[in-house]
């Protein structure tokens, strides 16, 4: 029996969808047949735009901008079937040194904004006969200590909790799931982890032996957005290559201890 992953006729909004992991997600949704709208605070050079997508400028932390964005999507396409809350991130800062303003900004982008955009999308989806699907991009930082990005890790743990709650509140019309993403190779990988030698050393600690590709995250999102996942809601899907082995195990292996 064929199991087609077909999003033809669906309209998807991907926050932070023009670069990095978001671009991989957008590409996967386009490949599955969806009409994809990406958004970010900055404009996209038409020469760099992903084929099959349109782009909108929006600060997803601003309620008025989010309402206007969702309104434009519905006005242009007549519906909104899929929301992917991907926009997020945080610079490195030790918790003892970071200011309250810094923590507010990290929580605002990584927790408050996904809720804000989800609220606007849900209001549309609840009125559609076919409802909709919301996929929140979370992180392995929600599952383990996140030194240097403590507020980010806490925000992502909040996203996973939020996902479970919204899946109950907004059922049966809207399914809500999250994807806990591990290390992923993007155009910013070297900036975060160093050059090829450092990245290779990090990849050796991952059970699958490498970082994810953005399109691999996109495949998981496309599945969750599709009818193949019609009975999946409130789930946390791990996309981390097997996770992070215990530190003692990594030390043993580096010392060739049996």
Characteristics:
258 residues, alpha/beta, Rossmann fold, seven-stranded parallel sheet, SDR family oxidoreductase, SDR_fam, oxidoreductase activity, acting on the CH-OH group of donors, NAD or NADP as acceptor
Spatial sequence of strands, sheet with the most strands: 3-2-1-4-5-6-7
Element-by-element helix/strand order? EHEEHEHEHEHHHEH
Number of E-type strands: 7
Strand content: 15-25%
How would you explain this protein's 3D organization?
This protein is α/β, with parallel strands linked by helices and 258 residues long. It has a single domain (11-194, 212-244), classed as Rossmann fold, CATH 3.40.50. The relative contact order is 0.15. It has 8 helices and 7 strands, in the order βαββαβαβαβαααβα. The radius of gyration is 18 Å and the shape is globular. It starts with 10 loop residues before the first strand and ends with a helix. Helix 1 (20-31) crosses helix 7 (214-225), helix 2 packs parallel to helix 3 (100-125) and helix 3 (100-125) runs parallel beside helix 4. The mean pLDDT is 93. It has a 7-stranded parallel beta sheet, sandwiched between helices. GO terms for molecular function: oxidoreductase activity, acting on the CH-OH group of donors, NAD or NADP as acceptor. This is SDR family oxidoreductase. It comes from Nocardioides pocheonensis. Residues 10-184 form the Ketoreductase domain. InterPro entries: KR_dom, NAD(P)-bd_dom_sf, Sc_DH/Rdtase_CS, SDR_fam.
């Amino acid at each position: 029996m064929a199991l087609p992953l077909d999003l033809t006729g669906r309209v998807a909004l991907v926050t932070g969808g023009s670069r990095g992991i978001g671009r991989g997600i957008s590409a996967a949704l386009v490949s599955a047949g969806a009409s994809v709208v990406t958004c970010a605070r900055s404009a996209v050079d038409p020469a760099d735009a992903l084929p099959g997508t349109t782009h909108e400028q929006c600060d997803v932390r601003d309620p008025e901008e989010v309402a206007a964005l969702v309104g434009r999507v519905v006005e242009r396409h007549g519906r909104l079937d899929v929301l992917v809350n991907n926009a997020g991130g945080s610079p490195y800062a030790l918790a003892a040194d970071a200011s309250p303003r810094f923590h507010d900004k990290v929580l605002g982008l990584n927790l408050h904004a996904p809720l804000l955009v989800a609220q606007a999308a849900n209001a549309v989806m609840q009125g559609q006969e076919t409802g909709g699907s919301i996929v929140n991009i979370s992180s392995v930082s929600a599952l383990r200590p996140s030194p240097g990005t403590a507020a980010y890790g806490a925000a992502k743990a909040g996203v996973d909790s939020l996902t479970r709650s919204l899946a109950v509140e907004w059922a049966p019309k809207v399914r809500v799931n999250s994807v806990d993403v591990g290390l992923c190779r993007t155009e910013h990988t070297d900036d975060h982890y160093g050059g090829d030698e450092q990245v290779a050393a990090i990849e050796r600690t991952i059970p699958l032996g490498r970082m994810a590709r953005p399109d691999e995250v996109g495949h998981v999102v496309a599945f969750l957005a599709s009818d193949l996942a019609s009975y999946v809601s409130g789930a946390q899907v791990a996309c981390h290559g097997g996770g992070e082995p215990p530190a003692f195990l990594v030390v043993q292996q580096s010392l060739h201890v049996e």
